[in-house]
Structure formats: C-alpha cells, structure tokens
Amino acid sequence: MGGCAVGIFVGGQGQRMGGVAKGRLRHEGRPLIERLVSAVREATSPEPGHLYLVGAATAYADVGLPSLDDAPAGKGPIGGLRALLEAAHGAGVDAIALAVDLPYLRADLVRRLLHEAPGAVALAPRQAGRWQPLVARYRPARVLPVVDAALGVGSTSLQAIFEGLRVAGQPAVELVLSADELRSIDDWDLPSDLPPDAAPR
C-alpha cells in the first residue's frame, strides 16, 4: 500500500463515549471507520499493500480487514503501535498509524504522510508542542527498539517514543500542517465533541 503498512487504531472501550465504538460514530452520514478506510485507499491507490485494524476489532468484523492484536496487550496504544511496527517490519515497509476517531481526515494528508521526508525515522505533525503519534509514519527497524525500551521501563506514553528517538540522535521530522490541515486532524474524544447526528444507526 504505497510502500507502507497502514494501521487504523480501533482499540479502546469508548468509555468516554458511553461504550460506543468510536469508528461507528457517523460524520456526514457515514461511519468514521468507512470514511477513514476510503481516505487511505484513495491516498494509496493504485498500489497494493497492507491495511489493518489495530486493537480490539470485534465491533468492526463487517469491515473485512485483517486485524492486529496489541502486543503486548493491556498497555494502551503503545501495544497496538508495536504490533503494527512488527507487521510492517516483517513486510519490509514503513508503518502509518491513524486513529479511528478522525472524522475530518482527508486523503491528501494521508498522501503527505506516505511520501514526504522519505528518509525520516518518524514523521508526524505537532499540536501545542505535542507530537501526534496516531497521525504518523514510522520506520519500524529504528522505532521498535525505542518502543521496547519505553516498555522496559514501564512507560506506555507514545510521547516517550519521540523523546527516545531524540535522545538516540534520530529525531522525528515534523510534518508542518496548514491551519486547514490542523483542523482535519481534530478528533472526537468526548461527547461534547460530537455533532447531533453522530450517533450510530
């Protein structure tokens, strides 16, 4: 898939959304998972590749995509990222990680992640000084040791991965976004973020 393994992170229990799987929420009449899969396929067409659901994917069985269990489980998104990096490493490609709750994400931004700064160990935008690790591309062979080092000291913070890369002398590259692109990576994290018609049907 454009030389990358793309993982859509669907894990989590949606507790802050009342237990609803976030990817089943709707924007402009379409479930978020459907919108995101379409954006990825548009961005990477016509090249074949690897597209996965990452994390507990039972609620998305009808989507028809392979899933990756967190590895290790019970550690939050870092376990999912490690599973995606392992799959990408085995395929000899980079990995793109995308959160499922990105209702405004468009194919053109996925395309930028795919193609810009091809030599970067990691490529991601920043908001308010923080890296956006689930709108990011990673070089598995370089990032996996940093993930394992973080887990080895009990850290589950995805921000710690970017700090670990910096300390190792291979810092991430910032994907500089326009104001419109920054709005496109706003997520739905709380019920107050949702428009009135977002509930699944």
Protein described:
- This protein is of the alpha/beta class and about 200 residues long.
- The protein has one domain (about 5-185): Spore Coat Polysaccharide Biosynthesis Protein SpsA, Chain A.
- About 35% of the residues lie in helices and about 20% in strands.
- It is built from 6 helices and 11 strands.
- The strands form 3 sheets. A 7-stranded mixed beta sheet has the order 5-4-1-6-10-7-11, sandwiched between helices. Strands 2-3 form a two-stranded antiparallel ribbon.
- Strand 2 and strand 3 form a beta hairpin.
- Helix 1 crosses helix 3 (about 105-115).
- It starts with a strand and ends in a 17-residue tail after the last helix.
- The relative contact order is 0.19.
Label the overall shape: globular
| Oligomer classification | single chain
Distance between the termini: 31 Å
Main beta sheet: 7 strands, mixed
CATH topology: Spore Coat Polysaccharide Biosynthesis Protein SpsA, Chain A
- The helix content, as a percent range, equals 25-40%
* CATH homologous superfamily descriptor: Spore Coat Polysaccharide Biosynthesis Protein SpsA, Chain A
Strands, count: 11
Please report the first level of CATH classification, the CATH class.
Answer: Alpha Beta
Rg, rounded, reads: 16 Å
Instruction: Average the pLDDT over all residues and give the rounded result.
Output: 92
* CATH architecture group name: Alpha-Beta Complex
Strand share of the residues? 15-25%
Number of domains: 1
Strand order of the largest sheet: 5-4-1-6-10-7-11
Number of helices: 6
Question: Which regions are unreliable across 5 or more consecutive residues at pLDDT < 50?
Answer: none
Sketch the topology as an H/E string, one letter per element.
Answer: EEEHEEHEHEEEEHHEH
Secondary-structure-based class equals alpha/beta
